[in-house]
Please model this.
Amino acid sequence: MALIVDVFPAREDNFGYLAHDQASGRTAAIDAPEAEAIRAALARTGWTLSDILITHHHIDHVEAIAELKAAFGARVTGPAAEADKIEGLDVLVGDGDRVTLGESMFEVIATPGHTLGHIVFYERAGGHLFSADALFSLGVGRMFEGTPGPMWEGLKRLRDLPDDTMVYCGHEYTQGNARFALSIDPENQALAARAAEVAALRDAGRPTIPFKLGEDKKANPFLRADAPELARHYGIAGADPADVFAAIRKGKDNF
Model:
């Protein structure tokens, strides 16, 4: 039996996810961006919500916790490092912990930077990575709370996961990310191919998520901060990759 993932839009540009363990019938919402969207997905799939897995404290990821918990009695698991910022958490987890959903198991990986306590959930058996705002297709989340070094180290841990991992991120930002990436890495053929694919998907009104991690490793400049050509682009050849990452992040912020 496997883990099934249902993908649906929420809010303005969020993605919502239901992760359903076939063996037990347990179903988790990955983050809680919008109660109405999650209820609609549950009705469409016929699944019953048993769990909510929270990645970080931003309102567009936690707003529906109270309503869903009251309606379904769902168990809410989230980052211990942000427990003081998130109401309704039942189980606190951190880096290296494991979360079970029936027969499915999620590894918790710390990815500080977007927020200091940001975590992601990785289901190794099926190759599902729920990255929220730590890693986007062709981008990463803004560095609201963290610093470049730890954020880069967290992203390297995600980059080390298998190439066939499917990534389910928090937002539909891929087309804008592609425009920036091409501006700093114009000779990257993998990036050019992904940008063309993204343009076709968006023109057809289709989402760009989920995406294969292996393809993103080749095309996402934030996962390539240790590539010499990106250091040269910013005139800092030979610099520590964390400094290159900082330059890329600043560049995207001002793009």
Summary: Residues 3-253 form a domain with the Metallo-beta-lactamase; Chain A fold (CATH 3.60.15.10). DSSP finds nine helices and twelve strands in the chain. The chain has a mean pLDDT of 97. The chain has one domain: 3-253.
